[in-house]
Write a sequence for this structure.
């Protein structure tokens, strides 16, 4: 390999490494802001629900560097930051924006996922239970962002070219995710799908922990927003 080729490789590596570090730092800052807002919301709601329910659990918990948990009654929301940086396939609408066309590096984004689980899935260690992706937050090097998600989550922030991350925007995303999760009720699965059980499953572990549960178990879960 010639020195010129090596230098070209080094130049590309340098550019990509610096860009991805920059994007990840912005995304990490957004994730940390989400953590602070979730902790604050947890404290505020816990005080208010005491007026009508002393038993309802409202809690916030960090699960390490990449994951934070928000529990509100029957619902648990997990906010997860991905350690990698991504761009988009050629058919994605992000490429149609003049903002991205002017600087293709703007299409490199960090991702924060929002998942919804039933709180009892964790409480009773039901390891076969299902959770659902209800939203994704994309953040780029300019601290611009957009959201893909279910219903009201996906309708909040779509203009990647003008939107910069603020605490107000993050709070509205959290609020929409919580409300969606609370309105997203579990359906009982079709009878025939729960008709068999092995003797060993009863002997080896409690039956409660072996029963698979999910809000749409046995039904096709159709995205109601524009998650891709």
């Amino acid at each position: 390999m010639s020195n010129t080729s090596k230098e070209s490789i080094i130049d590309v590596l340098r550019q990509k490494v610096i860009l991805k570090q920059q994007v990840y730092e912005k995304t990490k800052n957004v994730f940390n802001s989400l953590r602070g807002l979730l902790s604050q919301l947890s404290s505020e709601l816990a005080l208010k629900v005491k007026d009508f329910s002393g038993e309802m659990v409202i809690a916030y918990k960090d699960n390490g560097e990449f994951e934070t948990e928000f529990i509100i009654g029957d619902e648990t929301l997990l906010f997860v930051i991905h350690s990698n940086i991504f761009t988009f396939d050629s058919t994605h609408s992000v490429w149609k924006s003049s903002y991205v066309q002017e600087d293709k590096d703007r299409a490199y984004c960090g991702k924060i996922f929002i998942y919804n689980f039933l709180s009892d899935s964790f409480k009773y260690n039901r390891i076969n239970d299902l959770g659902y992706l209800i939203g994704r937050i994309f953040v780029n090097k300019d601290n611009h962002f957009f959201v893909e998600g279910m219903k009201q989550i996906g309708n909040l922030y779509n203009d990647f070219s003008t939107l910069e991350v603020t605490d107000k925007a993050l709070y509205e995303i959290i609020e929409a995710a919580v409300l969606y999760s609370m309105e997203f009720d579990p359906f009982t699965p079709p009878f025939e799908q729960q008709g068999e059980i092995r003797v060993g499953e009863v002997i080896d572990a409690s039956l409660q922990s072996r029963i698979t549960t999910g809000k749409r178990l046995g039904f096709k879960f159709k995205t109601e927003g524009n998650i891709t």
User: Anything to note?
Assistant: The radius of gyration is 21 Å. Residues 3-49 form the longest helix (47 residues).
